[in-house]
Specification:
- The complex is a heterodimer of chains A (237) and B (120).
- Chain A has nine helices and seven strands.
- Chain A has helices at 35-46, 107-115, 136-140, 153-156, 159-163, 170-180, 188-195, 209-213, 220-236; strands at residues 2-10, 21-29, 65-68, 71-74, 87-91, 98-100, 103-104.
- In chain A, helix 2 (107-115) packs parallel to helix 6 (170-180) and helix 6 (170-180) packs antiparallel against helix 7 (188-195).
- The radius of gyration of chain A is 20 Å and the shape is elongated.
- With 120 residues, chain B is mainly α.
- In chain B, helix 1 (12-38) packs across helix 3 and helix 3 packs antiparallel against helix 4 (88-113).
- The relative contact order of chain B is 0.11.
- The mean pLDDT of chain B is 89.
- Classes of the chains: A alpha+beta (237), B mainly alpha (120).
- The A-B interface holds A 107, 110-111, 114-115, 160, 163-164, 166, 193-194, 196-203, 205, 228, 231-232, 234-236 and B 1, 3-4, 6-16, 79, 82-84.
Chain lengths: 237, 120
């Protein structure tokens, strides 16, 4: 048991004159409590006006991504005691418009995702008697690409996104490469052309923030590099 | 929420050349340092460098070094401006500055290198 101070950056759209402000709360943190547990303690027992998103509380839905002590993390997957400090600062994820307190608008995330055509593009009709099959080797190529939960932590941590709100974003490039690498997909050109955009691939400067921020340990930077190489191969080859 | 139209960038080849020129610069810079500062006999002097630059091979290497370094550096600057400068008039002004700098420095560099003659 340890008393911890939570310094939470807040914003109320109904009180825009006040702007963003910081509010502190004390929470008696028990062993194993996650940041989400602590936020729930605050909301349920101290201040019902504190707003944040959460749903599955098990690292699957991606709703509770937020900036905690300097990094974007999933609140439900981060134990308070592992942060090494009794003072925990929580902000909404940077780069996205704040809706209220820790809840941000994920419109830029969805815009980027939709730009790369994140669906299977197949020329032929699907087989009538079975699924579109892959060999185990072909399926293996998708490991590390399909597990994205769209929490938005990577794109929010990217300086290119901070500089250009229309930047498509590492989450979308990871998804684009997930389809380019898929043996069942015939639309590589469509996915790649979408990435070859003024606000696309070439805005990535290989800073690796997205890799550090990803709570699922995925590597969007590697996917971006593969997409860049593939585009260059198609231009030169 | 509206979806925006895609604007093709055509950045693939420039990105590729930026990588290739980076590798080329690393190699030529290494060669330059070795030739100028390690393999030199006695004190480094203008005459020694002038003799080396007078040979056609070194003249070619140095001119390519100049052109490649200018491309690599100025394109890098261009990319940074592309990221952070969003006002149209300022972009035109700064991109114009980069283009002029490229032209002036390339011309000055070549005009400096070309006149060196063997035994001169």
């Amino acid at each position: 048991m340890a008393m911890m101070t939570f310094k939470i950056h807040r914003f109320n759209p109904d009180d825009e004159r006040r702007g963003r402000y910081v509010q502190e709360y004390q929470v008696d943190v028990r062993k194993g409590m996650t940041i989400l547990d602590c936020l729930n303690e605050i909301k349920w027992k101290q201040d019902g006006t504190l707003t944040f998103r959460r749903s599955c509380r098990s690292g699957i839905c991606g709703s509770c991504a937020m900036w905690v002590n300097g990094m974007n993390r999933l609140a439900c997957e981060t134990q308070a005691a592992t942060l090494g400090s009794n003072r925990i600062e929580i902000r909404p994820m940077p780069g996205y418009p704040v809706v209220k307190d820790l809840a941000v608008s994920l419109d830029p995330l969805v815009r980027g995702l939709m730009a790369v055509k994140p669906w299977l593009i197949a020329n032929g009709p699907p087989p009538t008697d079975q699924e579109r099959l892959q060999s185990p080797e072909e399926r293996e190529k998708l490991l590390g690409l399909y597990e994205c939960i769209l929490c938005g932590a990577c794109t929010s941590s990217c300086p290119s996104f901070w500089a250009d709100g229309d930047y498509i974003g590492p989450h979308a490039f990871l998804k684009a490469y997930r389809f380019v690498a898929d043996s069942r997909d015939d639309g590589a050109k469509a996915h790649l052309d979408a990435c070859d955009d003024k606000h696309g691939l070439w805005r990535c400067h290989t800073i690796f923030n997205c890799v550090e921020a990803c709570p699922k340990d995925l590597n969007p930077t590697k996917a971006i590099s593969e997409l860049k190489k593939e585009l260059v191969r198609r231009k030169i080859g | 929420m509206s979806y925006r139209e895609s604007v093709r960038s055509g950045g693939a080849l420039l990105w590729f050349f930026q990588r290739v020129t980076g590798v080329y610069l690393a190699v030529v810079l290494f060669l330059h340092v070795i030739m100028t500062h390690v393999l030199i006999r006695g004190e480094l002097s203008f005459d020694q460098v002038a003799d080396r630059v007078a040979t056609p091979l070194w003249k070619t290497v140095d001119i390519s070094f100049l052109v490649v370094a200018l491309f690599h550096g100025l394109y890098g600057l261009w990319i940074v401006l592309d990221d952070y400068i969003h006002r149209d008039w300022l972009r035109v002004l700064l991109y114009g500055g980069i283009a002029i700098a490229a032209l002036v420095f390339t011309t000055l560099g070549i005009l400096t290198l070309l006149p060196f003659q063997a035994g001169g």
